[in-house]
Design goal:
207 residues; alpha+beta; 5-stranded antiparallel beta sheet; 4-stranded antiparallel beta sheet; globular
């Protein structure tokens, strides 16, 4: 997926004037990219619109205007975009009871070996996680996962087969079908590189 470039970003004054409207549009867009799996995991499938928004918000909140610093932020966030022939997602572990947060988080240590994308009820693609976000003793509530897809699997996804996420961790066994808007959005990403550019323009410009 094409990286976000400096010229894709809005100037601080422009973004500030449009920020509320952009926020409403990204919330709507994320509904076609997010899947809840069980009662404590959610996956946000990343694309150019979601990464652009994260970067733009970081520049706004941190008041970053220096061009070199902006390029550095872009480099960090572009790493979250899916590469050729893959789907990528940010996985959030969401635990409401803050009193038992650490204990409940640690119950999911090793989850990086237990996340699968099911394609058409037949093919299973094991997720690969970013290193360094968990150890044998602790785990971060934010994880980054990629699903590498061979050409046949990509073909099946773009043809419209059902998709699901399955977790088979000893302490968390659950499966969720991807809602149709999410499935269609991922299929469009793979079928037409222009689709993710169109999504970015819609979120950024409202067009």
């Amino acid at each position: 997926m094409k990286p976000i470039a400096l010229e894709d970003m809005l100037g601080r004054e422009h973004y500030g004037a449009e920020r509320d409207a952009i926020r409403r549009r990204i919330i709507a867009h994320k509904r076609t990219r997010r899947v809840t799996v069980g009662d404590r995991l959610s996956f946000l499938f990343e694309d150019r619109a979601t990464i652009w928004y994260q970067t733009q918000e970081m520049l706004w909140v941190e008041q970053i205007t220096d061009l070199d610093a902006m390029r550095e932020e872009l480099g960090v966030y572009n790493e979250l975009l899916p590469g050729a022939g893959e789907i990528s997602a940010t996985l959030l572990i969401e635990i409401e009871d803050q009193r038992g947060l650490k204990e409940e988080l640690n119950r999911l240590i090793g989850i990086d070996e237990h996340v699968t994308l099911e394609v058409g009820g037949e093919r299973q693609v094991r997720g690969t996680f970013e290193a360094g976000r968990q150890t044998a003793e602790k785990i971060s509530a934010v994880q980054y996962v990629r699903f590498p897809l061979d050409q046949e699997t990509q073909r099946r996804i773009t043809a419209g087969v059902p998709l699901a996420l399955a977790i088979d961790h000893p302490n968390y066994r659950v499966r969720a079908d991807l809602p149709e808007p999410v499935r269609a959005s991922l299929a469009a990403d793979l079928a037409d590189p222009a689709a993710t550019e169109q999504a970015l323009r819609k979120v950024r410009d409202g067009g």
